[in-house]
# Entry
Amino acid sequence: MPDGTSAPESPSIEVLSAAVAHAYDAVMITDAVLDFPGPHILYVNSAFERMSGWSAAELATRTPRVMQGPDTDPATLQRLREALDSGSPFQGSAVNYRRDGSPFIMEWSISPVVGGDGRPQYFVAVQRDVTAFRRRLADAEHGAATDGLTGLPNRRAYDARLASMLAEPGKTVGLLAIDIDRFKSVNDSHGHGAGDSVLVEVARRMSDIARATPNALLARTGGEEFSMLVQGVGTEHEMEALGESMRVAIAADPISTAAITLDVTISVGAVMARPPDIKSDRLAIVADRALYRAKETGRNRVVLASFSPS
# Structure
């Protein structure tokens, strides 16, 4: 050392063993025999026991396969096997099963320990239960793509679905642009609570039709605006018929709120386009123009527009 002091000694095996034994993450050490019935478990720490429900004594000489089950992804296991066969480390995640049979998502990082002959002698796996994290992530993603009032997909989800539809060549895309007639007067006359009740019920009735329509997405894309995408629709008149089904579903029965009962109608603009002429902005423009004509000519009706790419 420049100042004359000696370098600190490396931690002893005892210190390293204690560090692994008390680590927050689960640790498993196996031999390097990958063919069935191996690899054999040689060591697990306390964190692994807590995570899996298995004791170290129960796992002695068992294989990690004891934690695999029907939802463990075979493709992930194959990638793991290929990496370990080549002596490479591997990072991944898969569904595993605790001793009581309950599933959880385990994320792991596995590294080979190479012997003097250059071949793996052991595998060390550092593992973590990420089930709760993945659930929170999924909930956040769902919330970011869902309208909080109606539970329908929102504009973000609509844009993503439309982009994915347009990325598939050879399939038609239909669009219904839907608007609740005179919705502003509902809010102005009866309050936003009544308006929210109308939005929820309109969404519910239209959702029944959307669920029965193959390859369809119904989204709330504005205040009182909804959009329905349909991929692979046969003719533009099928889109017109879907719009009419929506219109009838809303107009057939009044909508009751906590205080009043309202007659509610919708106007619909319908369009269908065939590839390769489909552009997302152009599709929306044509549908919105048809919706405007439906409003202009009396509301509570469906107007079908012919699509042109320009």
About this structure: Residues 38 and 63 are 6 Å apart (CA to CA). The chain has a mean pLDDT of 91. The longest strand covers residues 103-114.
